[in-house]
Amino acid sequence: MNPSTSQADRQQLKSNFSIRQLLATYFLVAALMTLYELAKETIFKGRLTPWESHTITIFVTATFATITAHFIRARTNKLNVEIQQAHNQAADVIDNMHDAVIIMNKEGLITRFNPAAEYTFKLKTAKAIGKNFTTLLDHEDAIEYENKIQDYASSKTSPILSGTKKEVLGKRVNGDIFPMDLSISSMVIDGHLMFLGVARDATESKNAEAELTRLRQIEQQIHESLKQEVSIAATIQMNMIPPSDNLYPGHSRIKAYGLTKPAKEMGGDFFDAFSIDEDHIAFAIGDVSGKGVPAALFMMKIMTLLRSNVTKSTNLVESLLDVNKSLCFNNDSNMFVTMFIGIMNIHTGELQFINAGHDSPLIAGKNQEFTALSGPRNMILGIHAANTYSIGNAKLKPGDTLVLYTDGVTEAEDQMGQLYSLDRVKNLLSAIDRKNSKLIVASLLQDIDLHVSSNQQSDDITVLALQYH
Asked: Positive or negative CA dihedral for 200, 204, 208, 211?
């Protein structure tokens, strides 16, 4: 039986027989008796003796009383049936609740123990009834709640008995301790102070929480490990790119400087500059598809193949055909690279180059404006093994400057989405002091930074400047 429902039903019963209804019944019976007396006097007109009159009145009154009693009894029986049905429904609700429900008196003794409570505490109802509620709690919690119940029973001031859920340690009949959520609230049943406890085993949720914490720690460890490995790989990648200063230490007629700024910790842009022999130097710039670790690994493969093939022969076409075939082999991820590569005779200034889908370098004579280096354009590397490549030729004069760059330069965006543009690159390079290659690169990158302002870098940026003296 649900105590709160029982109390409500009794209130309903009382309201059905309130003072107002009793008064109405009283006045109705009085009115009927008055009508009866008037009818009796009218019909018999004083011919009845006092004994006869009283006798008739007694029988009529008894009849009215019997009818009224029958009505009240019928109404009471109906209300009792409704109350019993309500009690049965409330009992079914309690018995079918997934949470453990314990009802106890003001002394803390258990008076009701539902099936969920039996399962939670591994204790049969018959053995639970009459036990103190605190036997279901671990020692410290038992003392706390015993004091709280006593305090509330005497002063009704304990804040813990407000129905608020609290995490405590429960104790099963076999002595096992387990975490559970508990809420206790007070109520009055038949004028007696009672307490309702609702408990839920929190073991599974605690285990799930602990497992989630463990997985998060593992995830963090993996993240830190990967971060460290990526950092090491980024260092290895950057070490493959030649040092920016003094790229050709054995050739005084060539002054070159290069710099790459990855958008992420690892990038796909690269440049390379190396000597082939006493008369020839090679330089290249490239932009791998994608970003991050895959692009960086593909970029390192390209640089290894490039140096290996170009240093074997000064035949640039044959070298690049071999590089392309190697990149196409087992390229399941369909990665590719745009690249410009040139081989230059440092004594004559003659330059042979192949542009494989890359932005054309800019060239300018001393005190002249920069223009695009003209020459044939070829397919990108890494897509078709049967690609053929056409070679371009140019001749640098003393004082000429050649600037190679990736599309991260011209496509750098400001906060409004406006691109830096090739025209701006040309105008800046034509206007600045070109006394050395390092100053050229630094000036260009500084102007790009001014353009993008606080906007985040979205693509790798690489610049290589080469001056022929």
From this structure: positive
Which of left, alpha, beta for 292 (phi over 0: left; psi -120 to 50: alpha)? left
Provide the edge-to-edge strand list for the sheet that holds 461-468: 254-261, 461-468, 401-405, 362-364, 371-372
Q: Return the minimum-mean-pLDDT range out of 6-20, 263-277, 387-401.
A: 6-20
For 189-247, write each residue's pLDDT tens digit. Answer: 777 888 989 999 998 888 888 888 899 999 898 888 877 877 777 777 778 888 877 79
Query: What tens digit of pLDDT does each residue of 142-196 get?
Result: 888 888 888 888 876 655 566 667 889 999 989 999 999 998 888 887 778 889 8
When mean pLDDT is compared over 21-25, 104-108, 404-408, the highest value belongs to 404-408
- Helical H segments across 203-284, by residue range: 203-240
Q: Are 261 and 460 in contact (CB under 8 A)?
A: yes
User: What ranges do the domains of the chain cover?
Assistant: 3-95, 100-206, 237-468
For 241-315, where are the alpha helices, taking DSSP H only? 292-310
Instruction: Please give the span between the terminal C-alpha atoms of the chain, in angstroms, as a whole number.
Output: 104
How much helix, strand and coil, in percent to the nearest 5, is found in the chain? 45, 25, 30
Query: CATH code for 237-468?
Result: 3.60.40.10
Give the model's pLDDT for residue 152: 84
Please give the structure tokens belonging to residue 61: 């009154």
What is the mean pLDDT of the segment spanning 273-300? Answer: 89
Which tokens hold the place of 245?
Answer: 């200063």
| DSSP annotation string for 21-51 | HHHHHHHHHHHHHHHHHHHHHHHHTT-S-HH
Token digits of residue 82: 């409704």
Per CATH, domain 100-206 is 3.30.450.20 = yes
Angle, helix 3-16 to helix 50-95, in steps of 10 degrees? 160
The Cα 153–Cα 158 span in angstroms is: 9
> Beta strands of 243-385 (E only): which ranges?
254-261, 269-275, 280-288, 337-345, 350-356, 362-364, 371-372, 377-378
39 has a pLDDT exceeding 80: no
To the nearest 10 degrees (0 to 180), the angle between helices 292-310 and 203-240 is 20
Q: Which sign does the torsion angle of CA 55, 60, 65, 70 carry?
A: positive
Report d(CA 329, CA 164) in Å as an integer. Answer: 68
Query: What's the pTM value of the predicted model, to 2 decimals?
Result: 0.60
> Does residue 126 surpass a pLDDT of 60?
yes
